[in-house]
Amino acid sequence: MSASVSAGPRRRLVFICESGTDVRLVTGLKQRFELTLLLRPAFGPRTINWKDEGPEPVRIVEGPAGRVAFAAFAGAWLVRHRAEVEAVLAQNAGVASLAANACRGLTRVPTFMLICSPNIAYFHCRYERGELGLPAYLAGRTLLEAARAGNALLGHRYLVLSDYLGGQVSYGIREKVRVVPLYGVDTSRFQPVSPEEKRRLRVKLGLPEEGFLIFFSSRVAPEKDTESLLDACALLRASGRSFWMLNLSGGHQRLKQLAVERGLGDRTLTRDAVDPVHALPAYYQASDVCAQVSLEEGLGFSPLEALACEVPVVATAVGGLRETIRDGETGLSVPVRAPRALADALARVMDEPERFLALARQGRRMVRERFEASRCFDGFAALVEEELASRR
Fold first, then answer.
1. What's the rounded Cα separation, in Å, for the pair 307 and 369?
2. Which keywords fit this entry according to its UniProt record (predicted)?
């Protein structure tokens, strides 16, 4: 990741992760701060590969596994260590964020909430798919709603990835909300390649050397509409189109099963997720289109990474995707749960590659202007300095 790091003192930042996080987010933070992570055990150091970015190691402190117990632990830790903490970043508006905000009166430490996803909407997707029974859903939603309301009341600063997320969390208190799309996109890694290099990458990655390659880069999760994408691919195949569909994720076995059920097993390539910093860019560069098919989406970094590589994007018009994938400007936007419209959009990219390459080039300019990783992290560091200066 490219870095723009101040020559001044590195502030002491505590990052509270109630659930999973991304190595790119932690890497950008550790390049600019003396970083401590408070983590639930399920998301501890065994599951995060820091690679070699950043000048200093990350201090990792594990708390209890339960959400409420972890929130109590995080609050107590902040109070106990308040003299050595200069700023707090809590991921999402959950109970751990609520604890950090509730303790702010005692710690006197600037506390920011980073909202990466519409967690209540995602939770509802789990219920719609039958992963939760009604009692568990109602209990969980009540807790999430209470945490959201409490954070809106007690919270000092929201950092959101998109305007859509700002409206989801603020309860009308918009002056608390700043759009800072951490972790952004490192366009020095995610960059376009020549047709010759694209062919070389396909050989290197063990992908088909010929044929149109659709990259579904998202994980298979309740909020993703994997079924509509596969239904669209089935329509394409029925119309005589030839293509490959690729997915890299922890849930790729489920996707493969769904593909086989639709007669697409021989056209679907599935693999485990790869390192998002060092390995992922090559898969975008080897692809012909990125499909982001979601039921809910906070922002959607996958389309931005694709556009940075000048790969055309087809995405559903939902959540933060409506702010970045503007139909006919930076890609093609289709309705939610509309396989026919999705198939038609993919067919257009197949038929008019030069036209949609031009849109992707416009998209790369947009990504560099609004989502460049170094600018996003520098923006957050500036906010921390602004808060600290206002308290002197």
1. 12
2. Glycosyltransferase, Transferase
Whether residues 58 and 131 fall in one domain: yes
163 and 234 part of one domain: no
By CB neighbour count within 10 A (0-12 exposed, 13-18 middle, 19+ buried), where does 206 fall? exposed
What secondary structure does DSSP assign to 246-264, as a single string?
EEESTTHHHHHHHHHHTT-
CATH number at residue 362: 3.40.50.2000
Angle at 367 between CA 179 and CA 184, to 5 degrees: 55
Q: Which two tokens stand for residue 54?
A: 């950043």
Residues 218 and 287 in one domain: yes
pLDDT digits (tens, 9 = 90+) for 248-259: 987 788 899 999
Q: What is the mean pLDDT of residues 366-375?
A: 96
Rounded distance, CA 91 to CA 81, Å? 19
Say how far apart CA 218 and CA 163 lie, in whole Å: 21
Cis, bond preceding 183 (omega within 30 deg of 0)? yes
**Tens digits of residue pLDDT in 20-44:** 788 889 999 999 999 999 998 865 4
Share of the chain above pLDDT 90, in %: 72
Domain region containing 383: 11-184+372-390
Integer Rg of the chain from CA: 21
Residue 52 has pLDDT above 70, yes or no: no
Q: Could you tell me which of 279, 158, 164, 283 has the C-alpha nearest to residue 217?
A: 283
**Is there a contact between 36 and 109 (Cβ–Cβ < 8 Å)?**
no
* pLDDT, tens digit, 9 for 90 and up, residues 152-176: 888 878 899 999 998 877 665 656 7
Q: Name residues whose C-beta falls within 8 Å of residue 279's C-beta, 6 or more positions apart in sequence.
A: none
Is 208 inside a domain boundary? yes
Higher pLDDT, 139 or 104: 139
- Looking up tokens 């063990």 gives 206
Answering whether pTM is above 0.85, one says yes
Q: Which residue has the tokens 């996109």?
A: 185
Query: What's the sign of the alpha-carbon dihedral 99, 171, 319, 380?
Result: negative
Contact 98, 145 (CB under 8 A): no
